[in-house]
Structure prediction request, 393 residues.
Amino acid sequence: MKQRILYFDCFAGISGDMTVAALIDLGVDFEKLKSKLNELRINGYNLDLRKVKKNSISALKFDVNLEQHEHIHRNLQDIEKIITNSNFNENVKDMALKMFSNIARAEAKIHDTSINKIHFHEVGAIDSIIDILSVAFCIDELKVDKIYSSPASCGKGFVKCAHGKIPVPSPATLEILKNIPINFTEIPNELTTPTGATILKTLVTEFKKMPGLKILKTGYGAGSRNLEIPAVLRVLLAEIDESKDQFIELVTNIDDMNPEIYSYLFEKLFENDALDIWFDNIIMKKNRPGIKLSIICKADHQQKLKNIIFRETTTFGIREYPFSRTELNRKIFTVETEYGEINIKVGYLNGKMIKYSPEFEDCKKCAKENNVSLKIVYDSATLSFLQNANKYC
Prediction:
């Protein structure tokens, strides 16, 4: 089945304005975007879109120019009201609200307070509201099925903000990027901003090396700085045939290995892209009890996993069984519970939510930290999710 996808190539990081520019470069109507933003009735800014060159690469530069310095510090409810009362469609509103919610959670964690008490400084300014709503609008206009991304590139050093000088990546950026692959560089600049991080956190289906795809168009969005590398975000609009994803089941029988090794082996295999691992108790030749070890992986990961199996176990041979599989589209959402934050995995069929599941590791961690039963944490996460289920349907 062919799907229309976006691929964010974040070799020089990602920010809100870079993303907007790259998506417009893919073909989104800038005049239509401006018209929708004008309906917000937020004054004190004007938009600028122009061609620039970064290390000889032509890219679009998107700027929100403030006519006067804004001193308003908005909280999450203020921003939610602006978005909810706008004339954007529900899909755009939903994406924008989730992006701001992710930023609010990160800021609340960093400043040890609740999300309702956070006053957005940089992210509450006009330019951030415009950036995030513009990204959501552009994504909706492009009508894509999935969004993939490379790891988020981060620089080093320090950057000025409302709280003074803070390290790069900023604490908020790192908090948002939890569970997301990061590429740390030696570039002494902020590459991935909190807004860029929340775009990846909220919208990306999977972080992976560039998959086999048919490229339809490329878009380049320029950043503000001049770096030793091109300061651009590259976004690909492409088609991918998900039915051609090839999977391998690796199987081996083992009857002479210390069982303590299996725990270490499982960790090693999962760290190297194994999708699933299990073993069965079997009786081998000469009536010896043994273990049948099975690993599921994508075809392009099988060699490194076979190397690990040969190095870390006593086996002399591995069987390989190619197959294909059908998967639900899935997204991860974070819910607040009285025991802490829990990620919920949600499955979609034909665009509709049909199942959900709290992440076990999150529930286990919260159960231990609060000295309560795992079931209580599961139930709390489920209840919190269901109370806001309309956001995820």
